[in-house]
Amino acid sequence: MTLALELFTIAAVSAGAVFFLAGTVGLLRFPDALTRLHALTKADNLGLGLVVLGLLPHVDGVLGGLKLIAVWLLTLLAGAAVSQLIARAARRSRPPA
Amino acid sequence: MTEALNLGIAAAVLALAIWTVAVRDTFAAVVGFVAYGLLLTLVWVQLAGIDVALTEAALGSGLTGAMLIGAAARLRRTEAAARAERPGVPTRVAAALVAAGVTAALAAAVLALPDPAPTLAPQTAENIAVTGVGNPITAVLLAFRAMDTLLEAIVVLFALIGVWSLAPDRVWGGRPGPRHHADPDGILAYLARVLPPIGLVVGVYIFWVGASLPGGKFQGATILAAMWLLAVTAGLADTPPIGRTWLRIALIAGPVVFIAIGAAGVAFAGAFLAYPDGFAKPLIKIIEWALLPSLALTLALIVAGAPQRPST
């Protein structure tokens, strides 16, 4: 049982790390602000979500788990709101040709 | 494994510090500074200094970062002119020598520290029961070294007075910052409605657990200040005119309570900022509760900046 949980953690956190890596590569390689934001929010949303999911079996007690999930939800909220604001500013400063 | 992580963080901190100093664009330097603060937070976590990590993230990186972004935005118009001014070679050589000398002196001081480093930790651990507080950091900050904390709270107030003193005469007593207008159905107004209730709970929680776990009034007050500034930025609230009496009273209430309790210590416990036996914990609680709103207001107003508009 413990082994299964360990394997689950390794798999989920690794998958999360892959999303962060892909998001970073996208941030560096994509051509404009909007696509770069897209890459970044994927890393935040799915990458952090998978890391949190992978760590859940190892927290002490329900409260610790809820705190981890709350961190993820707050990051979702902040990431979505801030990327909207940046996207709007980017579109306003450079209207589509 | 941990060793590799520590080396990686240390390398990243150094690289980011050099980049922040070397980069030409002011805004880019500010972004570098904020990221540098967040990496420092990780350093403090690795050193098991969770209290310091929280403070670094909230004040060092977050609040100072917000202030610097405001400063960078103001400097943008004059940046090209400032960059065109290049100091002469002697000035730059002298600056490099002084900076290198300071770095060498600091490095020598750090390397010359006795091993093991002198510590008061055992005495703190022995006497912490007297204070009734569970978190040794809080015990040090509000009982053993309460004087430092009192001066910190007053220094923050002085910083605000310094910011205010930049106000032009005609708007003295007016409202800090521009009046923000955002689309009431837009994403910023939405965030400013959804986040503050959560932020208030988190801020008060961080403050509350400071008595027994990492956390405290400075970190909690920063979160409360951030929530208020978010509402201001979204146009849902406005900054108060700095001439209002209630504002001035709210700003000094925390330090005044702290000083009053400290002065009472002279009469009842024989020394300034000494607590009578058995009263340490309730008195520390009163000081913390009095400081929280004053600190939150002071920090928020420091970020909001000098008055820019008349009060009407």
Description:
- The complex is a heterodimer of chains A (97) and B (312).
- Chain A has one domain.
- Chain A is 87% helix and 0% strand.
- Chain A contains 3 helices and no strands.
- Chain A starts with a helix and ends with a helix.
- The model of chain A has no long low-confidence stretch (mean pLDDT 88).
- Helix content of chain B is 73%, strand content 2%.
- Chain B has 312 residues and is an all-alpha fold.
- In chain B, helix 7 (146-164) runs parallel beside helix 11.
- Chains A and B meet through helix 3 of A and helix 8 of B.
SSE topology string of chain B: HHHHHHHEHHHHE
SS field, number of helical segments of chain A: 3
- First-last Cα distance of chain A: 58 Å
Largest sheet of chain A: none
Largest sheet of chain B: 2 strands, antiparallel
* Helix/sheet category of chain A: mainly alpha
Mean pLDDT of chain B: 89
Q: Any idea what the shape of chain B is?
A: globular
* Mass-distribution shape of chain A: elongated
